[in-house]
Amino acid sequence: MSASARPVDVQTLERYLAVSACSPIAVRLVLGHLLRSLRKAAGIDAEAAGRSIRGSEAKISRLERAQVTCKMDDVMDLLTLYGVRDAPMRLRFEEMVRIAREPGWWHRFDGVLPDWAGKLIGLQEAASVIRTYEVQLVPGLLQTPAYTEALVRQAYPMASLEEVESRIELRRTRQQVLTRDDPPHLWAVLDEAVLRRPMGGEQVMHDQLRHLMRMAHLDHVTVQIAPFNRPGCLAGGFPITHLRFDLPALPDVVYLEQLRDAEYLDKLEATQHYRQVLDSLAQAALSPRQSLELLKGFLA
After folding, report:
1. What architecture is the 108-299 domain classified under in CATH?
2. CA-based radius of gyration for the chain
3. What sign does the dihedral 177-181-187-188 (CA atoms) show?
């Protein structure tokens, strides 16, 4: 394959690395997307690609969908098969493989973090925009430690003090994505029920609402309240998280959390549907300024 015919060049790879290097999961997804693009451009089917790395069509599918961690030898062999032989390109791919194979910082919380939740953390760290709709609880990225503790103790009444502290620390560490030098924009729509549910008691909720107000004044945080008296603020009664990325290789992702697992959607039709739902909610909800006034009323 000629260099001009490739779907990616050195400059693009460097941009991908710069944007996604903080998240091994994001790099893994980008890497899978690029390998699929290179395979398609080379006119090679998945079965032939699988044979070239002593595997199968299913193995290629798992690599390209980032369902498994890529091995360095496999990626280098695939690049050779796809006609990518120039050293600068291969060096960037080697760096991507190294990052993709690193464990995320959240792995040290494996004892309290569900298997399906680590992907969300990695995606949030690579996202440029995080949109969320919450119907019962303050979004995790906006919770105070006391609010998180009250929530953990209610959800896990038999948890040890060590486990409670570990869950609080996990939440606090996740929130650092909003205080780094290049934070994503967080756009949160909260049902009014979130404000009226006295999680942890009066003082905890008072401090939590004050924290919401402080966060809402940041340039990269938008908070809107969906009040009871606006019928357009109904969206099925379950939370929605929509993630967007400054990476053409990464499609939007919608995260739908359930009681014991979660669903990740990345098909265009599904993500567009949920984006429209969030757009409708934001339009029906109070404006950010009106939402701040409502929060002040709860604190009066």
Report:
1. 2-Layer Sandwich (3.30)
2. 22
3. positive
CATH 1.10.260 in the chain: give the residue spans. Answer: 3-100
Supply the pLDDT for residue 45: 95
Q: Where in the chain is the domain with CATH 3.30.870?
A: 108-299
pLDDT in tens, 182-225: 899 999 999 999 999 999 999 999 999 999 999 999 999 999 99
Query: What's the distance, Cα to Cα, between the start and end of the chain in Å?
Result: 68
Burial class (CB in 10 A: 0-12, 13-18, 19+), 210: middle
Is residue 233 pLDDT above 80, yes or no? no
Please tell me whether residue 285 adopts helix, strand or coil conformation: coil
Q: Is the pLDDT of residue 3 over 70?
A: no
Within a 13 Å sphere around the CA of 254, how many CA atoms are in the beta-carbon half?
19
Q: What CATH code is assigned to 3-100? A: 1.10.260
Report which of 117, 109, 152 is spatially closest to residue 255, judged by C-alpha positions.
117
| Contact status, residue 153 vs residue 164, Cβ threshold 8 Å | yes
Rounded Cα distance between 204 and 147, Å, is: 6
